[in-house]
Design brief:
The protein is of the alpha/beta class and about 450 residues long. The chain has two domains: about 120 residues, Arc Repressor Mutant, subunit A, CATH 1.10.10.920; about 300 residues, tm_1862 like domain (pyruvate-formate lyase- activating enzyme, Alpha-Beta Horseshoe). It contains 16 helices and 21 strands. Helix 4 links the parallel strand 5 and strand 6. It is globular, with a radius of gyration of 22 Å. The protein starts with 6 loop residues before the first helix and ends with a strand.
Length: about 450
């Protein structure tokens, strides 16, 4: 009896498997407390003086909780906790700069959250000045900020422009009111359009919208309609994510009615409806879950084989050094990863005492680097030359091609093909790229962590 190789059959067999999103390798559950403040200080001291680094600043505060949220964030209606946090964050900026031993060159800054624009305009500008003093910011530095259109004020928009904003990412998720009520996030089309117009005037030349499929009460039609309305506003990019329902780890997700969530086939149908709508509107599919206009830098990087993937998703940022600042922030150095303490209180206590807040991390082995390269190229290009990568890292190709039951199954089902050492993902099965990438994950299953469904 042959396997069902229709799209529905493939989704049923593979789509419910929970896998990492592979924004890093090894993934965060592999991080260990063996890496602490002392290790991080040593890594900072080894950062290249000539190659610019990237900065990521985490602002873990929101005014209200979106029930689908999987981020590290805290709800605060008062400004005092936010002000206290910003004081500590600026202290960490100085500590990191001192550990590096110079004003490190920086060409990319990303503010994430939470809601970075929860701070007042003058506070944002003051934080930006702290970065100016501690680091040597490139004249054409890319400044990206994640934004909640519901709370963005004209004054904050002006401050973003003064700070040199170049790129903004707006949370949209869904314009379906029934879905919005089910996830505790009411956001009108007008709020989104007004935020977009203001950010354009402030100087943002690249704007991204986040959309989500697999939300409670979401349908194929409502997912496509949200995409149609959003595409009409002409942001340069879209990031389209599948909702990961993990109430064991995110207790607020228990407020979502599980009976209103679709199964694997329904999720896949919603994702494809969004994709078809965006492609019909002139956007190109980039990697697994991003879309961009043909002239956008993301599209150009994909054409040149220069696309990368990091904790913010697909990116043109090829820097080997990402300095994470703030509670729970993850950094990447040439030798491995570091992560700050997740708890805001413990993070603040460490920084206030003059100590770096690193609570865990991971030091890469040679095989890790090889597998990370394979996984990144698969995630970005949907094909990889295993022989070329193995040779580059000084390993025999057999280390990558050794018996792997999942890879053999994918080959048998026609999801991937192997020509010599060239592994290629079939075009119509690209939605299973994380399943393909997992074949090269030497640590999958060790942590017991619950990940997002593969489709």
């Amino acid at each position: 009896m042959t396997s069902d190789t229709t799209t529905g059959g493939i989704v049923s067999r593979y789509g419910e498997t929970r896998l990492p999103r592979y924004t890093s390798y090894p993934t965060a559950p592999r991080f260990s407390s063996v890496i602490g403040p002392g290790s991080y200080r040593d890594l900072l001291g080894k950062i290249s003086e000539t190659e610019p680094a990237s900065l990521y600043l985490h602002v873990p505060f929101c005014r209200s909780m979106c029930w689908y949220c999987g981020c590290h964030t805290t709800i605060s209606q008062k400004d005092a906790p936010i002000l206290d946090y910003l004081t500590v964050l600026k202290r960490e900026v100085r500590l990191v700069s001192e550990a590096i031993g110079r004003r490190q060159k920086v060409d990319t800054i990303h503010f994430g959250g939470g809601t970075p624009t929860i701070m007042k305009p003058e506070e944002f500008l003051d934080l930006k000045q702290s970065l100016d003093r501690a680091f040597q910011l490139d004249r054409t530095v890319e400044l990206a900020v994640e934004i909640d259109p519901r709370t963005l004020t004209p004054e904050m928009t002006d401050a973003l422009g003064q700070a040199g904003l170049t790129r903004a990412s707006l949370g949209v998720q869904s314009f379906d009111l029934k879905v919005q009520k089910a996830i505790n996030r009411i956001q009108t089309v007008e709020q989104t359009a007004d935020a977009l117009a203001g950010l354009r005037n402030a100087g943002a030349d690249s704007i991204n919208f986040d959309l989500i499929y697999g939300l409670p009460h979401q349908t194929v039609n409502s997912a496509a309609e949200t995409a149609r309305i959003a595409a009409a506003m002409r942001p340069e990019r879209f990031a389209v994510f599948g909702y990961a329902h993990v109430p064991t780890f995110k207790k607020h997700q228990r407020l979502i009615d599980e009976n209103a969530l679709g199964d694997g086939r329904q999720r896949h149908a919603q994702a494809e409806a969004i994709a078809e709508t965006l492609v019909a509107a002139g956007y190109r599919r980039i990697g697994l879950d991003h879309f961009a206009l043909p002239g956008d830098a993301l599209s150009i990087a994909a054409d040149r084989g220069e696309l990368h993937r990091n904790f913010q998703g697909y990116t043109t940022d090829g820097s080997q050094t990402l300095i994470g600042l703030g509670a729970s922030a993850i950094g990447r150095m040439s030798e491995g990863y570091v992560q700050n303490d997740v708890a805001i209180g413990r993070y603040a206590q460490r920084i206030s005492s003059g100590e770096l807040a690193t609570s865990k991390g991971y030091r890469l082995t040679g095989e890790d680097r090889m597998r990370a390269s394979v996984i990144e190229r698969l995630m970005c290009d949907f094909e990889v030359d295993l022989g070329d990568i193995a040779q580059r890292f000084g390993h025999p190709v057999e280390a990558l091609r050794k018996t792997n039951a999942m890879l053999e199954t994918l080959l048998a089902d026609g999801i991937v093909s192997l020509n010599g050492n060239n592994l290629t993902v079939d075009t119509k099965h690209r939605f299973l790229i994380r399943t393909v990438a997992s074949c090269f994950d030497a640590y999958l299953g060790e942590s017991g962590r619950t990940h997002a469904a593969a489709a």
